[in-house]
Design brief:
Strand content: under 5%
Helix content: 55-70%
Number of helices: 10
Number of strands: 0
Order of helices and strands: HHHHHHHHHH
Largest sheet: none
Structural class: mainly alpha
Shape: globular
Mean pLDDT: 88
Distance between the termini: 28 Å
Radius of gyration: 17 Å
């Protein structure tokens, strides 16, 4: 098969996959541990207007796809939500944050709220990590916090591989 034909077939298959919601396109680059969370990312991405691929990228960075993850700071679950944020933003208890569906719902809802305020996904991610006050104090830029800068860079890098 010549090179042009292979490219044409590849583009056709990519178009078919993208037309099917893009699932096949981005699930190809997602680890088995993350693939199981794609349906939740798609459900709550559609509900809150967030690209499911960005949600999967954030889950990868936050917990590596482990629904039982607890950070040293006390953040819980797939999207590493602090109990205080889960309570104030979604009315969830600490125990409820271990439920993958509730955790993703709350994390996506909160990310969308940050985006609506900041009008930029990179800034919304920075605010999710460091707090909105720090993003505002930095002049509506990613704050000069090494962890936050790396957090945003990692998510956007992984996301760009799926787009």
């Amino acid at each position: 098969m010549d090179k042009k034909l292979k490219i044409a077939i590849g583009l056709i298959l990519l178009g078919i996959a993208a037309g099917a919601g893009g699932y096949a396109v981005y699930s190809y680059v997602v680890s088995q541990r993350l693939k199981r969370w794609i349906p939740l990312a798609e459900k709550y991405g559609a509900m809150y207007g967030v690209d499911p691929r960005l949600i999967i990228s954030q889950i990868r960075q936050e917990s590596g796809g482990n629904p039982d993850a607890v950070s040293s700071a006390g953040a819980i679950g797939l999207m590493q939500i602090m109990p205080s944020t889960g309570a104030s933003e979604c009315g969830l208890t600490r125990e409820q944050l271990f439920n993958p569906e509730l955790n993703v719902m709350c994390g996506v809802k909160y990310l969308r709220k940050l985006y609506d305020r900041l009008k930029d996904w990179r800034l919304a991610l920075a605010a999710y990590n460091a707090g909105i006050g720090r993003v505002i104090s930095a002049g509506y830029k990613v704050p000069e916090i090494t962890e936050t800068k790396q957090y945003v860079a990692n998510i956007m890098s992984y996301y760009s591989k799926m787009v």
